Amino acid sequence: MKKISIKIGLLFFCLIFTMEVCLFFLLHQKIAHSRIEEELSALVNRGNNHRDVLETYYNEETIHHIALMEVKSVTEVVITDEQGKIIISSTDITNQIRQLIKAEKKDIPRSGQIIENDWKSKPYIATVTPFETGIKTGYVYMFQDTSQVKQLMKQLNKHFLIAGIATAIVTAIIILILSRFIAKPLIKMKEATKKLSRGNFSIQLDNKSNDELGELAGSIQRLADELNHLKTERNEFLSSISHELRTPLTYMKGYADVAKRDNLSKQDREHYLNIIMDETEKLTTLVTELIELAQLDNNAFTIHKEWFPVSEALKKITKKILPSFHEADITLVVICPENIQIYADPVRFEQILTNLLDNARKYSPNGTITTLEVVHENGDVKIAIRDEGKGIPKKDIPFIFERFYRVDKSRSRDLGGTGLGLAIVKELIYAHHWEIEVASEVNKGTTITIIARGESS
Length: 457
Hints:
HATPase_C_sf; 457 residues; five-stranded mixed beta sheet; HssS/ArlS-like; two-component regulatory system; Heat Shock Protein 90; 3 domains; Sig_transdc_His_kin-like_C; Beta-Lactamase; rod-shaped; Helix Hairpins; alpha+beta; ATP-binding
């Protein structure tokens, strides 16, 4: 549970901490460089001020006054003549000071020049400013002990270290909170997938965010709902098929036992044998349709499309099915222009319409009319089958193409259906890439429309 939040937290911490270290380093370098520049600039300005005083009031008193001023400050001054001879100094002359004074000077600007800026390894930083009076010409050297600068940098480093540690702690706390917040829905999804793997499909993921996590949670929820639906359908299917197989087998066994009796008349024996034959046919039809559905589910069948006249196919279909309509005293009306052709599998086309017409006959009372009408609209073929039967309740319409689903379950055996016909029709319609629509009103009839888009001529 904590692994993913720890991984996310460590990843974010490493990335952000690396960025912070780089930014802190750049900022430190910038501030340190600015502070050194300020110290050097202040040293140059101090030398320029002494130069201005010397040029205005050059005398022994002024020179001593300048030296005395520097004795009380953190900087030191050395005034030399043009040849480098020391006129006065506010500090003892060290070897480094002596070397800087004796160094060759070329084109030193009046505004002053930095002659030593290495504060890390040298004991002094230094500047030189030339002066010129009517009496004397020379140079004003300014020196500052680098220990002062180093102490300043040490304080700066200390402040940056404290700020860095504080920033790292605050960053770690924020990232810990954020990583747990980000990982929480992932942990829930992981637990949900565990439940799915164990066969528990009744999960609820309430992640309503509009980001990728929300989309992933929605996908898992839809998968769970579909698996739960499939599980329910499978259980219902197994229950239904067990019932459908057990019922004819029970009839067959029972009537076979009765037909074996010695004292049974020939007429009664034939009656019982006919019942057995009827149940055998029903069982054969059920098994055949189950095999066909299995083939449809596994795509173990092929659709062989070809162009053929719809009217010719309908004549062939009605010739086979018309006797059953006459027997039920139902009028079958076929309306189809002669010039309409359709691109379809002729065998499957006949199977679709036969199933739908047979279904209309079963659920229509005597003396009613069933109409099969074909129209050609905008390159589409629409085949509508309208009956005047009992109709389908609105709540049942979405489920009539499911396997073994029956609107009137109490009359299922009286009507002789297996509950698989419409399921086969739906699969065949989808295999042709067609559409099927159902409109129905209770006690007024049902209209089922097949729409073959762009497959007519």
